[in-house]
Every structure is written in structure tokens, then in C-alpha cells.
Automatic annotation (TrEMBL):
Residue ranges constituting the ATPase BadF/BadG/BcrA/BcrD type domain according to the UniProt record: 8-304
Record flagged with keyword Nucleus: no
A GO term, aspect molecular function: kinase activity
Keywords: Kinase, Transferase
Protein name: N-acetylglucosamine kinase-like BadF-type ATPase
Organism: Saccharothrix tamanrassetensis
InterPro entries in the cross-refs: ATPase_BadF, ATPase_NBD, Euk-type_GlcNAc_Kinase
Length: 331
């Protein structure tokens, strides 16, 4: 059998799977719904991964009795603690997709997608927020990334919830005036934000904080001080995640890549990315801040190719098979 990698990038909102041969040729690509075990449970996660893995095998022309790959490289949201990684790896190995398997947090795939060697720091801010750092000697630094119980601040859901919280307090007098108030009233199509809250409480309207996150950035772009304060807080958090990781690994004075990814960071026209770059320049002047320009599933596949000892030409072939992502201004 030609050596193949089954690469899985399992996010909160979507799952991407690629089947790649050891030369870096993409044999199949499929996408499906988000399947973080923290959100949908381990059993449902494995159902999604199984369906996508088998779909990739069919797309590549493999027969039902063929092993899909030599190695599975699964980098998943929700694989935040060693026990979670081990439970997922054991469950995936029972599926029999490949001879060997590795399961890690999806931030490792982001780091590999944004670098030539998987060395440096990666911060992702999409539905949630997370960070990982890898030193050249193999040392790593991670955060639990379990939400507020593990000290996290940020992510699309968190920021969207902040937008509603600030609008409510602006209306009832507990908070400062902000253009978030009329923006959210317009969003919900109500006369007051109190009316919107009542509808949310009685589940007459679905509360999806993710859709409020871009709205907050739009209001901040008009110069609204309250909304801009949230953006500044996000910039501070991303900078903290990266700088603390570099400090813990003794890399503040080293030339190192800081990779940023996730829709909240990359979809704001450089507002967050450029500010993070400016702040990190004072803390770690040799660091190179860059925005990932290929999908994270490419990083998962590259980590799989690394595990198989693929030639450098395989990385180039794989990267060129994907259209570059649109990155934030200044990236």
C-alpha cells in the first residue's frame, strides 16, 4: 500500500478531513459538521469522524476492505487534556482506519499550518480561544482551555455574550451608553433590549452569541468606546497567551513564529492582528507574527507526513494544492 495520511481537523463549528499520500498529493477532501466531544459527546464525535473518513476513502477510490491510511493525524477541538487525547486516540484506533494514530488539540495543527516546522506559538480565536507553544527542543506549553473555569477570556461566543450584556446594562442604567444598544435592538427586531431578553428567556428567539460577535466589531469600528473596550481586551488576551507561552519556554528573546488563526482574529480586517503585532513587538522584538494562510487540516496532514518521514517536496505539493486563505490586512 502506498503510505497515506488521514488528516482530521475537528473544530467546534465544522470538521475537515483530507486523505493525502506520502508525496503530498491530496486524494480526497470532505467536510462535515462540528464534532467537538465537549459539545456533542464522544460517541457522536466518532460517528461524524467515521462517516467523513469513509467518505474520503470512497472519494479516493479505495475499496471497503482496504485500510484507509498508514497513519491518522487527528487534531481536534475538545482534546484539551491528556486524558481526553488518550481517550480519543484509543477510540479512533478501534475504528481501524490506519496502522498508527495520533490525537492532539487542533491548535497544534494551526501551528504546523502556519510554520515550516511546527515550532513557535499558535493562538486560535474562533468559537473559543486557545494557545499552544512548541520549542525546538520539543518542550511544549499549553493552557487547559476549558472556558472560564480555566481562566479563559475570549472566543466568538464569549464576545457575542459580552455585546448583549453591555447593551442590556446600557438600557437599564447600570452601564455606559453604547451604540451596541440600538444595534442589538435592530438585530432582534424589538422595541427594547429588555423585550429581546424576555424573548430569549422564554426561548421564543434562539440565543446564538456567535452571530453577535461580528456585530460588536462593526460597532467598535464606528468609534464606540464601549465596544472598542472589548476589542482592546481581546487584543490584550491574545498578547498574554502568546507572551506567557514564550516566557514559560524561555523564548522571549528568540526569533520565533507567532501564528494567529480562527475567524475572530482573521475576519476583522487586521484590527486585532495588527494590534497584537504592535504589542508583541515591545515584549519580544524578534517574534514574527503571521496569520495562517491555509486551512488547519493542512497542518494536520503535514504533522502526519512528518510522522511518516515524508520528503520536503511533499509539504510544498500539499500546500500548493490549497487556495490561500484570505488573511487580515497587515498580515
Amino acid at each position: 500500500m502506498t503510505d497515506r495520511v488521514l488528516a482530521i481537523d475537528g473544530g467546534n463549528s465544522k470538521t475537515a478531513v483530507a486523505l493525502v499520500d506520502v508525496e503530498g498529493r491530496v486524494l480526497a477532501q470532505v467536510r462535515g459538521p462540528g464534532a467537538s466531544p465537549q459539545n456533542v459527546g464522544l460517541a457522536r464525535s466518532l460517528e461524524v469522524f467515521e462517516g467523513l473518513a469513509r467518505a474520503a476513502a470512497r472519494q479516493a477510490g479505495l475499496s471497503a476492505d482496504q485500510r484507509i491510511a498508514t497513519h491518522t493525524a487527528a487534531y481536534l477541538a475538545g482534546a484539551d487534556l491528556p486524558k481526553e487525547e488518550e481517550d480519543l486516540r484509543a477510540a479512533i484506533e478501534l475504528r481501524g482506519w490506519s496502522e498508527t494514530s495520533v490525537v492532539g488539540n487542533d491548535t497544534f495543527a494551526l501551528l504546523r499550518a502556519g510554520t515550516s516546522d511546527g515550532i513557535g506559538v499558535a493562538v486560535v480565536c474562533g468559537a473559543g480561544i486557545n494557545c499552544v507553544a512548541v520549542a525546538r527542543d520539543g518542550r511544549t506549553h499549553r493552557f487547559p482551555a476549558l472556558g472560564r473555569i480555566s481562566g479563559d477570556w475570549g472566543g466568538g461566543a464569549h464576545i457575542g455574550s459580552e455585546a448583549l450584556w453591555l447593551a442590556v446594562r446600557a438600557e437599564d442604567g447600570r452601564g455606559a451608553p453604547t451604540a451596541l444598544l440600538p444595534a442589538l435592538i435592530d438585530h432582534y427586531g424589538t422595541r427594547t433590549i429588555a423585550e429581546a431578553v424576555e424573548r430569549l428567556h422564554f426561548e421564543q428567539v434562539e440565543f446564538d452569541p456567535h452571530v453577535l460577535c461580528p456585530l460588536l466589531f462593526q460597532v467598535a469600528a464606528t468609534g464606540d468606546a464601549v465596544a472598542h473596550g472589548v476589542v482592546d481586551r481581546l487584543v490584550e488576551e491574545v498578547t498574554l497567551l502568546a507572551s506567557v507561552s514564550l516566557q514559560r519556554l524561555g523564548l522571549l528573546d528568540e526569533q520565533v513564529d507567532v501564528v494567529l488563526g480562527g475567524g475572530v482574529l482573521t475576519g476583522t480586517n487586521g484590527v486585532v492582528v495588527d494590534a497584537v503585532r504592535d504589542r508583541l513587538r515591545d515584549l519580544t522584538p524578534l517574534a514574527q507574527v503571521r496569520v495562517v494562510d491555509v486551512p488547519p487540516v493542512v497542518g494536520a496532514a503535514l504533522l502526519g507526513l512528518d510522522a511518516l518521514g515524508a520528503a520536503p517536496t511533499a509539504e510544498l505539493r500539499l500546500r500548493t494544492a490549497y487556495e490561500p486563505l484570505e488573511v487580515a490586512a497587515g498580515g
